[in-house]
Amino acid sequence: MKLPARGNRNRWFAVSATALTAAMCAVPAAAEQPIAAHADASHVRPARHLAPAAASGTASEHEQDVLDADDARFFLTRVGFAPDNAELAHYVGLTREQAVDSVLAGARTEAVTPLPDWVLEPVPTREMRKAWTDDQRRDEQRLRGQRYELLRAWWVREMLSTPSPLTERMTLFWHNHFTSGQDKVPYPQQMALQNMLLRRDALGNFGELLHDVAKDPAMLQYLDGASNRKGKPNENFAREVMELFTLGEGHYTQRDVSEAARAYTGWSLDPDTQSYVWRANQHDDGEKSVLGETGPFDGDQVLDILLARPETATFVTTKLWREFVSDTPDPSRIAPIAAQFRASHYDIKVALRGLFLSEPFWDDANRGVLVKSPVDVVVGTLRGFDIGYDNTAPFAAEIRTLGENLFYPPNVKGWPGGTTWINSSTLLARKQFVEQLFRATEAAGPRRMGSPANARIAASGALPGMESNPPMQHAMARVAQGQGQGQGGKGGVRFDVDTWLAHYNTAPTAKPGLSTELQLQHAVLPLTPVDAIDTDSTASAYLEALLMDPAYQLK
User: Fold this and answer.
1) pTM beyond cutoff 0.90
2) Is 39 exposed, middle or buried (0-12, 13-18, 19+ CB in 10 A)?
3) H or E segment at 184?
4) Helix (H, G, I), strand (E, B) or coil at 277
5) pLDDT in tens, 177-223
6) Annotated domain spans of the chain
7) Cα(523)–Cα(85) distance, rounded to whole angstroms?
8) Distance between CA atoms of 202 and 179, rounded to whole angstroms?
């Protein structure tokens, strides 16, 4: 097996050259260097295998291709997070169709990690807020900030422990699609409830999700829908729901926005509970003309008009393509998938199945072309290497350092993603994250946050050290100092490199041969390494070098 070494990899690094450190500027030249002095140029990737029942030449032939380890690892990394060896073994030998159906069937509607108890607490009423002293107001603001940090740590824990990584990937996708955030939603309870809504419909029905999110209290605050009333319409939500949530730019006019804003009047929030309420006396029930249709529409009817437009199915499918296939959508390939999506009345699984079984998804030319997001880097690394931990707060902080502060997108357009994830600062931070993990190696097996005791800690929200939101290096330092080890650890991180390398018949201090080096490359990178690696390295040093390679930032 040989990892693909394609020109588009160098194109990606050329595009993001301004964001790379000086050491990365020579990537094209480095990519031409041999991986090791004894690299075997004739060692090529094997041809695809077909399941015996597949009929050659039929339209569904490639759906019956059998996954080898590289295929399974690519697939699971693209649709979720990097898999550990146990998860990978389950998919090796399945056909593409079986693999796709398996991940879709495993989708969840609820988190496995208990939410903090305070999520169900009511927000303070108007009378309570009026009675606060200045000190009490400051204490309340501090508490809300701490709870937002707890919520981030809770979500990272769910990403790490979920049996359905695709569910969390799609929950995060919709969080970046239907953006709301801490800057305009003061109470973390409301963002937690929105997160539950996004997860419930993450792979459900897009139409239902659109209608529910439109009236979600966090969204009504974030896009000022709660202040939209008859005679004084606020156009923020009306514009963004067309531009960013459904049609996309160029498929509506300013008049459509103004008329739609009138339809959304009457959607409001209770001033005490901050829950959704309908106020008929604030609704403009006059006739509106939206996208060529005229009537006394209310907000739900306008949303249905948007859903009836073919541009909506195309826009959402194209965005899913960018998330899972490549950053260069192919309209001719997207069109039939979008048509199926629309014909299914917006069943999200129909769109995903179409994308995951498409030839471009599996094409070698599209492997290693997507840049890993901060969540991909942190959660994928921790899951893929079965890292042990006691506290997920440092991981949430690390994800923020890398540029993706959960529950706090940069603006209504969300995180742009792609090459914007990489700049000189974030690239250095990604490398430091790897270095810190290797300082946390230990012989004892890792322990994840999955025990009943830890689940109770998660439910109460009383996470050790959360108040200070310790950065990653503090957690690592505790490990290095002998703290955080064993059952009494407080935020410790443990990488059992011995056990991980044993899967490849080597040990940390052993010097791997060519066969083992190639196996490690396939286990870690989507492409051949960009940088040359010292052939005299120990297995542990070789593995660390692979994780430091620029190709590790791709998927």
Assistant:
1) no
2) middle
3) none
4) strand
5) 999 999 999 999 999 999 999 999 999 999 999 999 999 999 999 99
6) 374-553
7) 9
8) 14
